[in-house]
Amino acid sequence: MSLVIYPAIDVREGGVVRLRQGNYAQETRYLPNPLELAATYAAQGATWLHLVDLDAARNGGYTLTPLLQQIVERTGLQVQTGGGVRAEDDVARMLDAGASRVVVGSVAVREPERVVAWINRFGPEKVVVALDTRRDDDGIWQLPVEGWTQASGCTLPALATRFSDAGLTHVLCTDVERDGMLAGPNVQLYAELVAAFPTLQVQASGGVRDLADVAALAGTGCAGMVLGKALLE
After folding, report:
1. Which residues pair with residue 18 across a beta bridge?
2. d(CA 92, CA 22)
3. Do 30 and 15 touch, CB atoms closer than 8 A?
4. 99-127 pLDDT, tens per residue?
């Protein structure tokens, strides 16, 4: 299995931005045109793109359908995209608009049985479950929701087990504390996740700075990694 690098484009109010640790009050704006950036990544050899609607992640209602369609039509990139996915119809619309995979976050944590039904309907290749995690004071990996602004009471091992048992293929795991920090990825977290759930194709996200970090993550057996701030800066 070859390692896939997913350049990330996070969009808020139409522009390319990055947040620090998922905090909407700590935003850096980079470029006004996400389509141009997607084309640049395609020209540099990317085959996939990770596209996030940050407005929808907080408020619901995916807003990037026109952009998604343009990226797919003009760049040839395969796109996994998410933000504000709340219902089965949202998944269907995004797939119809050209998404190769739909990333499901908060609803997967709050209502896992609903998302299991979506996996069964659309197929395990079409849904990515985002288990964004933050370690608490007791060392337990918790899963915050709603743009990482609210506690869910669910843990990473419990949800990973539930979705693995249900036949999920792709899981995206972000260490919230490292997201947007350029402080290095949590290699141990991903090594443990890959070892514990061999049927899952794990995508690592958060903290990657350089080629050494990429190599370290590749050594964990991750199927892919999402690169955001490192590529922008």
Report:
1. 28
2. 27
3. yes
4. 999 999 889 999 999 999 999 999 999 99
- Angle between the 34-43 and 65-75 helix axes, to the nearest 10 degrees? 30
Which of 143, 71, 135, 77 is closest to 110 using CA atoms? Answer: 143
The single residue of 132, 175, 179, 213 carrying the catalytic annotation is: 132
Query: What residues pair up with 9 in beta bridges, in sequence order?
Result: 51
Is residue 142 within 8 Å of 151, Cβ to Cβ?
yes
> Token pair for residue 49?
């793109």
Q: 27: which strand partners?
A: 19
Active site residue 132: yes
Residue 230 is classified by DSSP as H
Can you read off the two tokens belonging to residue 146? 């709603």
C-alpha dihedral sign at 205, 4, 66, 169: negative
Q: What is the DSSP letter of 28?
A: E
Q: Is 7 exposed, middle or buried (0-12, 13-18, 19+ CB in 10 A)?
A: buried
The pTM of the whole model exceeds 0.90: yes
Position of tokens 């070859």?
Answer: 2
Residues 6+ apart with CB under 8 A from 112: 159, 162, 163
**Catalytic, out of 10, 55, 90, 179:** 10
Using alpha carbons, select from 119, 122, 61, 117 the residue that is nearest to residue 86: 61
The 10s digit of each residue's pLDDT in 145-160 is 766 667 788 999 999 9
pLDDT for 177 equals 86
The one-letter code for the residue type at 216 is A
For 39, the enclosing helix (H) or strand (E) is helix 34-43
